[in-house]
Amino acid sequence: MPSLPTIEKDVEQRAKSAPDHGAFDSATAGQHDPAVVDYCQRLGDDALILGQRLSEWCGHAPALEVDLSLANIALDLIGQATNFLGLAGNANELAFHRDVLDWKNCWLVEQPNGDFAQTMARQFLFSTWQHMLYDRLAGSSDQRIAAVAAKAVKEVAYHRELAADWVIRLGDGTDESARRMAEGLDWCWRFLPELFELDETLQALVDRGIAVNPQSFEDDYRQAIGAVLAEAKLATPPEQRPILGGRRGHHSEHLGHLLAVMQYLPRTYPDAVW
């Protein structure tokens, strides 16, 4: 049996001087940073849960055009969720195999659709915030997060515009549509303070230039919301006792019911493939 070829001396010397790992063995910057993972989960969870909520309208919206619009917004949000959760780990595992207490989305996105007015009120309040956040997050020092935000902000600009148009149409429409929109806004209003909550994890990322301090654009947000409500001839809802805790895994019963539907197939058939 022939022997292995002789190792030349110059090859042996080069091997000794080479680093003890390959070029692809080093971890991507921030990939295993718990704070960055937590932040990406927050962003991904917000988008995924709202996308799932909007998908519930498929085939039930008041008009075919609206049905298509809501379906497209849902697909945009699920795409954003895939990207952000992919930065946090395995997107499929995070989406379909986490229990309710492990989710970090805000309370606003998990709220039930209610009627069409409540759905658009929720979309308007969230998309306005999300658009302002992504616009600033495109300048993140984490290039991966910045790239996802820069792409997503173009999609969210449409979500914001569409929702604002419906708030105005319903608010400045009939007495019935105005009442329903006012009730939808009132239902969602208690969840706004959580969007601007600044905890220790977020503050540390803000200091590193990775995350955006939401309190830095809260005034702009309130003004933008007020301008649309004025055009819709709707009064700004009174401030309510804030509902907080979604970022720490404290959620309403609505999220558990949503996940039971969303996660049913992969949990029931864990080995299934498309």
From TrEMBL:
Where do the record's region annotations for Disordered lie?
Answer: 1-29
- Return the SUPFAM superfamilies for the record: Ferritin-like
Annotated Gene Ontology cellular component terms: cytosol
Q: What name appears for this protein in its UniProt entry?
A: Phenylacetate-CoA oxygenase subunit PaaI
Mark out the compositionally biased spans (Basic and acidic residues). Answer: 7-23
- Gene Ontology biological process terms from the UniProt entry: phenylacetate catabolic process
- Origin, by domain of life? Bacteria
What residue stretch is flagged as signal peptide? none
